[in-house]
Amino acid sequence: MSKLNLNQSLIDKARSSARNIAEEVQRFVDEHTTVAVERTILRLYGVDGTDEIGTPLPNIIIDNLKKAGGLSAGIAYFMANAVLNTHLNPQEIGEKIAAGELDITKLPLKPEAEIKAKAEEMARSSVERVKKNRARRDEYLSTLGEGPRPYLYVIVATGNIYEDIIQAQAAARQGADIIAVIRTTGQSLLDYVPYGATTEGFGGTYATQENFRIMRKALDEVGEEVGRYIRLCNYCSGLCMPEIAAMGALERLDVMLNDALYGILFRDINMQRTFVDQFFSRTINGFAGVIINTGEDNYLTTADAVEEAHTVLASQFMNEQLALKAGLPEEQMGLGHAFEMDPNIENGFLMELAQAQMAREIFPKAPLKYMPPTKFMTGNIFKGHLQDALFNMISIWTHQGLQLLGMMTEAIHTPFMSDRALSIENARYIFNNMRNIGDEVEFKEGGMIQTRAAETLQKAADMLAQIEEEGLFATIEQGKFGGVKRSRTGGKGLDGVVMKDEKYINPFIPLMLNIELTRSKSPASEESGCQSAGKSSMDSTNIQRESKLPLNEVSFNK
What we know:
Layout: H1 8-30, E1 32-34, H2 35-44, H3 57-67, H4 75-86, H5 90-98, H6 112-143, E2 151-156, H7 161-174, E3 178-181, H8 209-226, E4 231-235, H9 241-250, E5 255-257, H10 260-267, H11 271-288, E6 291-293, H12 299-302, H13 309-325, E7 333-334, E8 336-338, H14 348-362, E9 369-371, H15 381-397, E10 402-404, H16 417-433, H17 437-440, H18 448-470, H19 472-477, E11 497-499, H20 508-513, H21 523-528
Parallel strand pairs: 2-3, 2-10, 3-4, 4-5, 5-6, 6-7, 8-9, 9-10
Antiparallel strand pairs: 1-11
Helix pairs in contact: 1-11, 1-13, 1-18, 2-3, 2-9, 3-5, 4-6, 7-8, 7-16, 9-11, 10-11, 13-18, 14-15, 14-18, 15-16
């Protein structure tokens, strides 16, 4: 029952608009692939390593395929055909390509049915590995157990994976449930994934598969010591979004920051590129049992949290529907929001409480990710500690899922181990003493909290109706999220987008979604003369709506 007395018909209307927006984006996604998607397929096929100058093999192979004009058919098509012709495995074929000894686009083509069968057969081993990782997590959770929600979520960011281990294990012993290894500054803009264990980074540590493996092992060890499962978090946003999702699935990460809108607005990544990348990354995360974190909290670092709160809710509605398209269940949607109002506002706490309770009631199954105050942290550590305490109170009151703990030294330096210990102590004290306050306290009928929530919901529903009419890409161009404008043909990575042709194969999507993909022409593909790959979502029905997305507004590589 709603404590906020929210209008359910308005919630339904907002969700319907978000669903239509997601369907339109999905049509565009289904018709395109990217260099990152194709590199991800290679990684899932077991291709890894670098050449003699450190260039990752997946990059070398996909760059060669793109230059040869074969990207539109997808690497799975050519790699499966190469395996049939050479009887080598994908790693061996990749090494020959890197050495200049093989051009897989010039091999004789086997019958299409044989190629598709081989592509699927090759995919099954990594799919089974991910299944085993998920089963291993479930085993740990059933034997060791875990901390209560909200999970205490802290960061390590030394730049050195081995130093990160020391800090991460210390945090687990202090009571942390989730360890996020912050990525080094700028990695989201790299169109490749670095290789191996790394010991140098600025503001964080490189996300590599070896670093994932090392930290996973360390957290399993400390989890067995403290008697509860410790979750590992990293970032599959940026230009390598699906690649890092695949690496995380292979190494049993548990939480991934994953949001196309965040990359578009705050990293200037091309919107067409990142929506295609996001779909495959979320398909992988959903299959691997990974909780995604979305980036709505970031809007309030560039826009006013009082005036623009509805944009956070609107984005949450859209992220919910886009995630469902990728087969990601609500229980794995860490939809983001933040405690970011100016502490000098009168009754700001009540408005923050309304926002958090509203998110909890509208998305009851989602393990909401609640972000701490950062924008108005001043360096006054005593006031900062109080701001974090108020944040912790709202989190336990409204039953949040993942609580990124605030640090009293925010705006001063990367936190020391002692800062982290004080933050965990603060949260544990408040969570214990106020555990059931949300079950005991009701809100005044027609009072400030209910009124604030109703106004925010109405604005979000109106905004979603407008986006439904204009299209998401146009809305982003207008700067309606976070006050940041981005062009649909600008930003980084557009040259890595290509339209699929009729031979295109990605065997991992049907295997991970457990569906049979169908090929059908949408109105958009009829108009542009391209062949649709069919809806790669839980609903495989073709949507008969005119596309507003820019299928013909850019020149894609053919």
